[in-house]
Amino acid sequence: MNAEDRVERAKTLYERAVFSGDVSVLTSAERGLDAVEADVALARGRILHARFLNERASAGSPPVEDPAELPLFERAIESYRALGDTRGEAEALFWIGCLHQVIRRDNVTAVPYLEQSCRMAAQIGDKPTQSEALRHLGIAAHMAGRLDEARERLEESSRLGREIGALPVVAANMVGLAYVAAAQGRRADALTALDEAHAIAQAHGAHAIVRQTEQARTKI
User: Fold this and answer.
1) What is the pLDDT of residues 39-60, one digit of tens each?
2) DSSP code of 186?
3) To pair with 18 at 20 to 30 A between CA atoms, which of 83, 136, 155, 162?
4) Whole-structure pTM over 0.85, yes or no?
């Protein structure tokens, strides 16, 4: 049920409560609206995160974290937990982990969130969230020098991404795999990965990933 459906249902239940006197339906209406508010909080947090990434790519100085981002994700996760929405909770956990890793450069804090998100997403078959969590766990492993683990995580993320058609995510993973290959002395594999990443990114209009492949070529 999407947000519009939940709001419309709340209206219908309000009318039932008013005209039939059955106030018990209001609890269901409130839970539906709680779900809408959780979805909106998560979406607003993602927008702030996207702005940070854009500023990081274009600004001359490091961007500043928006103080509203983490509270939005925390509000979302509290609501999803209260509602028993495992899918929403797994996604919110991922975004909290992503914030700590990408914005705060704190993998020690980020990894437990990402791992929990990955486990929960796998349990319910939420492949998009599982793929994203694996990607960022691969990044964390790479940064820690655990190259075999990084490769395994990124390859599994890519496998899931291909299954669900999230090819820009696959392209981003291929850039990561290129860096891992280069660090392991597999330069030919690194260049092949960049070729694939570039082709996928161009085909899907993922211009930011295209730029990442070009930057990686100068470093590998």
Assistant:
1) 999 999 999 999 999 888 886 6
2) -
3) 83
4) yes
Q: What are phi and psi of 217, to 5 degrees?
A: -60, -30
* Chain centroid offset of residue 18 CA: 41
- 153 within domain boundaries: no
Kindly indicate the confidence band of residue 106, based on its pLDDT and cuts at 50, 70 and 90. Answer: very high
**The CA-based dihedral angle spanning residues 115, 117, 123, 128, taken in that order and rounded to the nearest 10 degrees:** -120
Res 24 pLDDT > 90: no
* Residue 141 located in a structural domain: no
Give me the phi and psi of 103, to 5 degrees please.
Answer: -90, -45
- For every residue of 80-123, which 3-state class applies, written as one string? HHHHCCHHHHHHHHHHHHHHHHHHCCCHHHHHHHHHHHHHHHHH
- Is residue 62 assigned to a domain? yes
Residue indicated by tokens 């890793």: 101
Range of the domain at 23: 1-84
